[in-house]
Amino acid sequence: MHDESTKQPCCNPPWEPPQVIPAQVRRVNNLIFRKINQFHRENNVDNVTPMHDWIMSYLYWHKNDPVYQRDIEREFSITRSTVTNILQLMERKGYIERQSVPQDARLKRLILTEEGVRVHEKTMLSLHQTDEFVAGLLTEEENAELLRLLNKLRKGLE
User: Fold this and answer.
1) What is the pTM of this model?
2) Residue 89 contacts by C-beta under 8 Å, 6 or more apart in sequence?
């Protein structure tokens, strides 16, 4: 005989939704992006997406190294088709150029344009403002622990 009183309801998960880690991370991520967008508007770069920010930053800090599409795919853990679309839009906006490589015509080195450098500097100001705002919500010890835990999660999920 089956005991109905111990049976779990069909539609109620055994956890409280606000405590599911991926859901909480997603919520915090959305709020951080809103804050970035607020600072972007204040710094007159509200037409730049956060992903464009990060790619321009990567190209800026690696300007003396050859950077190719596969490097962007690996660095940001995004698919080839997604990176292709992002880079095409960045090229149309004048942020980057693709330069042919003499040893392999199939490879295109990614170069940040002067416009890309200018936009990068303004977007970096917004990102620094966001980072300072978010870090200010926690103590120094809490920030260190949060970063440690996020890095641990990222490494475990890669």
Assistant:
1) 0.62
2) 52
